[in-house]
Amino acid sequence: MEPLHKYRWGDNTIFALTQNNKTVVYDLTVPPRQENGHYITATNYTYGYTFNFEEEFEVGDYTGWMRVNWWHSLIWTTMYVSFIFTGTSFMQHRPRFELRPILVVWNIVLAVFSTLGALRTVPEVLHLLSKYGLGFTVCISGKPFLDNRVGGFWNWMFTLSKVPELGDTVFIVLRKQPLIFLHWYHHVTVLLYAWYSYSDYIATARWFVCMNYLVHSVMYSYYALKALRFRVPRWVAMSITTAQLAQMIMGAAVNIWAYQVKQAGNECHVSYDNIKVSLLMYTSYFVLFAHFFRRAYVVNPKQVGARLAKKGQESLVYEGKSSKGKLE
């Protein structure tokens, strides 16, 4: 069986893709460079400005570290799940913590971080899509991808961010808000997958990272406004969940496209097993988010609430209140 992890895609800078009986050769031998104060990647995407910490980022050092230490994600997720059960039990007969000032700062920080991440990654993917095509974006990584220090920094930040984002659940538990399976399942699986796959630097990751940054920039901004007690229209919450559903559909589609490219005999820098795991994840997310959307916005909240109350369960449907456990 093809191993899911520990792939290294080599130092090639010339790639070829054959699609629809047409072969396209991509010569990316010119390395990233500085021209007229601008950072230009091997794929000729130009960053209008760069920070020192981006220019000094050595992607290889961090992929190497993650190749050895990815298993730390198992420790984080074990601690996380343990906290959910012990924290929920601890808070069962205690008054909820308000924590509103901290929650405001928390969400603003994550909103700003996600927005910066989206601004640094989305334009490059759009450039690749328009200049090289879809097949390139889902299958070609290698040395040109690794040599992009700016993109590399934000890919690394994305991977690390899955740990502090577990803090969302801490607020839910301490504030005694409904904690649904979708919320903690999503956090656990994304953290494990991101850390386990990082050192492979798979080509499909460029899509996953961009979509996550983009959706989270809006989602955490929404949470910040709710924490600040702004009256946010209900359609905004519906739009965020819709965007998350679209993200899951696109994530599944990217995996299917990569699979088709590989099946056609092309070089594609993601393993079959990685595609299968990722596709399974995105499919499960879609089912769970669709189920949530139906319960929150389609089924009559009063009817669902009454039905659950009869069963001795807490209603998890959207009631126009701030509830981070319901969207993430």
Protein described:
It is a single chain. The protein is mainly alpha-helical and 328 residues long. It has 13 helices and five strands. It has helices at residues 52-55, 59-69, 72-91, 100-132, 134-139, 142-147, 149-161, 167-174, 181-198, 205-227, 234-263, 272-298, 301-310, and strands spanning 14-19, 22-27, 33-35, 38-40, 46-47. α3 packs parallel to α8 (167-174) and α10 packs antiparallel against α11 (234-263). The two termini are 34 Å apart. A hairpin with a 2-residue loop joins β3 and β4 (38-40).
Furnish the topology, listing elements before pairings.
Layout: E1 14-19, E2 22-27, E3 33-35, E4 38-40, E5 46-47, H1 52-55, H2 59-69, H3 72-91, H4 100-132, H5 134-139, H6 142-147, H7 149-161, H8 167-174, H9 181-198, H10 205-227, H11 234-263, H12 272-298, H13 301-310
Antiparallel strand pairs: 1-2, 3-4, 4-5
Helix pairs in contact: 3-8, 3-9, 4-7, 4-10, 7-9, 9-12, 10-11, 11-12
- The SSE string, one letter per element, is EEEEEHHHHHHHHHHHHH
User: What is the overall number of helices?
Assistant: 13
The radius of gyration computed from the alpha-carbon positions, rounded to a whole number of angstroms, is 21 Å
Overall geometric form:
globular
Q: Count the E strands.
A: 5
Poorly predicted segments: 1-10, 304-328
Q: Helical content, roughly?
A: 55-70%
Give the termini separation: 34 Å
Strand order of the largest sheet: 3-4-5
> What kind of sheet is the major sheet?
3 strands, antiparallel
Q: Helix/strand-derived class?
A: mainly alpha
**Strand fraction band?**
5-15%
The mean pLDDT is: 87
